[in-house]
């Protein structure tokens, strides 16, 4: 049976989201209907809303950092049941495709092609408004109270975990920690530079602390972010605006030749270059996490790579969601991952546009939307 759901719909790029009641069709075979209890707002939602995302399709329901409860399952669904608590995954884990079986990546291919077009695996949508289809987003669309996902795109988690906090593990916090521990595999004693101190960069600092990095350099043009970075374990703080030379030079000088690992958590291609070039000759590795707009490209002198620096990228921190997210939830439960530190604002769905404003003004780390 089709149900009604309150949702924040992005009808067009660069327009405020509109809170309307959409129609949601029941889950088809291999799909699940989830009631979202809470969702974070990530910079990637703002990026897509800005029109810069080459995969952005409108009208759509954004949101990909949610926590919810399974309300119904389609035919053939076996891994979750009604009442289970889940975190939606924008990086599915089917355990059967070439990517999942490779043991080399978390980038599952099972539903990625249709997901990137805003569609369910059968190339249709489950959302509509006034009879017109509304596109899905990142396979999750957590800015709707009810959403439909492929079974392979939900991670079952313990019912004791508070969904209005562990929702942040659906993207930002897992991404930052995973990039450090899975992608870079930072080792004890290493030096680390983190560019951008939003939800992703601060989570990378937690990861660096977990890895027992000896020095964690936090870089942001908004100095109000330094206090939380310090609380989470950063040891040095740099505002590039305080210097009249390239920031990579400043970091190379203060670290006797560069850092062992750097992480770009902004989505700025000039900063990606700086992050690579502040890595130590011979072995320094730089990980791109930030998402840059359509058409933008990175550049550096090839000599930077010839002389041993490594440039990598990381999606969802290299984490295989269905298998590994429960352990992240456990770490949040024990306090090893301090989710409360990230939640600077809580609000209802009606106020969601304010969450975007706060992000753009640099006043929030994460806003959690409660349904
Ligand atoms: P955010 O807006 O909360 O934080 C970005 C931070 O970067 C802010 O503190 C801002 O002041 C700082 N900043 C901006 N310009 C800067 C500059 N020139 N130098 C230094 N700092 C600067 O964003 P977020 O939610 O933390 O997301 C960060 C980026 O990561 C975005 O591009 C987002 O799309 C991307 N992201 C990628 C993945 C992935 O899996 N690869 C996952 C989540 C988010
Ligand atoms: N649609 C974008 C791609 C954006 C992108 O790189 N997304 C990240 C996750 S950001 C979450 O906040 C990602 O996981 N990428 C891997 C993938 O399969 O999308 C564009 O630029 O076209
Ligand atoms: Zn995100």
From TrEMBL:
Residues 12-369 form the Enoyl reductase (ER) domain. InterPro entries: ADH-like_C, ADH-like_N, ADH_3, ADH_Zn_CS, ER, GroES-like_sf, NAD(P)-bd_dom_sf. SMART domains: PKS_ER. It is an enzyme of class 1 (oxidoreductase). Its EC number is 1.1.1.284. GO terms for molecular function: alcohol dehydrogenase (NAD+) activity; S-(hydroxymethyl)glutathione dehydrogenase (NAD+) activity; S-(hydroxymethyl)glutathione dehydrogenase (NADP+) activity; S-nitrosoglutathione reductase (NADH) activity; zinc ion binding. Keywords: Metal-binding, NAD, Oxidoreductase, Zinc. GO terms for biological process: formaldehyde catabolic process. One of its GO terms (cellular component) is cytosol. Its cofactor is Zn(2+). It catalyses: a secondary alcohol + NAD(+) = a ketone + NADH + H(+); a primary alcohol + NAD(+) = an aldehyde + NADH + H(+); S-(hydroxymethyl)glutathione + NADP(+) = S-formylglutathione + NADPH + H(+); S-nitrosoglutathione + NADH + H(+) = S-(hydroxysulfenamide)glutathione + NAD(+). Has high formaldehyde dehydrogenase activity in the presence of glutathione and catalyzes the oxidation of normal alcohols in a reaction that is not GSH-dependent. In addition, hemithiolacetals other than those formed from GSH, including omega-thiol fatty acids, also are substrates. Also acts as a S-nitroso-glutathione reductase by catalyzing the NADH-dependent reduction of S-nitrosoglutathione. Belongs to the zinc-containing alcohol dehydrogenase family. Class-III subfamily. This is S-(hydroxymethyl)glutathione dehydrogenase. It comes from Stutzerimonas xanthomarina DSM 18231.
